[in-house]
């Protein structure tokens, strides 16, 4: 009745990453990286030379790929494509903002938490805790 | 908005009244049920929200520890492990499984991470130097992935619940503010029309009764007159004259009588 977006019950879905080099290396070390036959990877390393367009394209590609369930994105990268991240409202794949070494986690900018702030202005979650 | 509480266009009969009443009962019951569903979903929503907040905080800490472990590994094993790791990427050994859980009638997605158990190419990284740091770093990052997967499933259920709550609330409001008033207006309209029909009938009946009564009275009057005349005739005959004939003779002088010469 209310499930327009069918959430697939899949058995093996990948975790995509758009982050800086160190974070991506760490996750690749853990075994999250995947390169398929057409040399398509499920990660994008963002450094000072990456253009915003590249990041946008990677984000769009990861969110439309069928076999990716989670997209991890560094918060400062998310700030670069904030409009794309904020307008994304499909439940799958899930977009998670992770902190990076140089940019500690800032809950005020997280897209999900800022939406929550509108709902619960009494218990202001994202506006700093005392 | 035009006509917020109009009524349905129906023929105002007794059958329709029954039908519309049944629909009103259905709408009331549906409204109560949907309200309960919305409350249950909101409770779940709040719980998930609290869990999300706490998990996000712990995620920040875990990422910090894992970055630190990575820096240690880089320091010990040399900066080159970056390239080694990048070269070694083949198939992912950590994958995510998605299931659907039914919570208060809403299908929420849930992610679990699975270790596919294939031989990890990275087992041999840092064999030259710093092997232990590299392994520790890997363990730290695997733990980070666990937390992240849990956070992802919380986030998706959060978003799905949000949508579900919005649709349910929309339906509740629609029932309460549009459907029920419309049905109630229709019922009062039908009742009004039925009453008016009844009144018309009643009025018609009364009028006809009135006519009938007047007719009966007139007949009784004429019957009485006739009866009185009869009695008078009888008396006159007894005295030898017929009143009627007497009147006739008198009125006959108005006509020409042949026996009279002058």
From TrEMBL, chain A:
Q: Which residues form a coiled coil?
A: none
Its keywords, alphabetically, are: Hydrogen ion transport, Ion transport, Transport
Q: Got a GO cellular component term for this one?
A: proton-transporting V-type ATPase, V1 domain
Q: Name one Pfam family in it.
A: ATP-synt_F
Domain of life, per lineage: Eukaryota
Q: Name one GO molecular function term.
A: proton-transporting ATPase activity, rotational mechanism
The answer to whether UniProt assigns keyword Oxidoreductase to this entry is no
State the oligomer form and interacting partners: V-ATPase is a heteromultimeric enzyme made up of two complexes: the ATP-hydrolytic V1 complex and the proton translocation V0 complex.
* Family that this chain belongs to: Belongs to the V-ATPase F subunit family.
Summarize the protein's role. Answer: Subunit of the V1 complex of vacuolar(H+)-ATPase (V-ATPase), a multisubunit enzyme composed of a peripheral complex (V1) that hydrolyzes ATP and a membrane integral complex (V0) that translocates protons. V-ATPase is responsible for acidifying and maintaining the pH of intracellular compartments.
Question: PANTHER family per the record?
Answer: V-TYPE PROTON ATPASE SUBUNIT F (PTHR13861:SF2), VACUOLAR ATP SYNTHASE SUBUNIT F (PTHR13861)
Q: What is this protein called?
A: V-type proton ATPase subunit F
From what organism does this protein derive?
A: Arachis hypogaea (Peanut)
Automatic annotation (TrEMBL), chain B:
This protein's UniProt keywords: Ion transport, Transport
According to the UniProt entry, its GO molecular function terms are:
proton-transporting ATPase activity, rotational mechanism
Stated name of the protein: V-type proton ATPase subunit D
Family the entry assigns: Belongs to the V-ATPase D subunit family.
Reading the lineage from the top rank, the first entry is Eukaryota
UniProt-listed PANTHER family:
V-TYPE ATP SYNTHASE SUBUNIT D (PTHR11671)
Q: Which InterPro entries match?
A: V_ATPase_D
What is an example of a Pfam family matching this protein?
Answer: ATP-synt_D
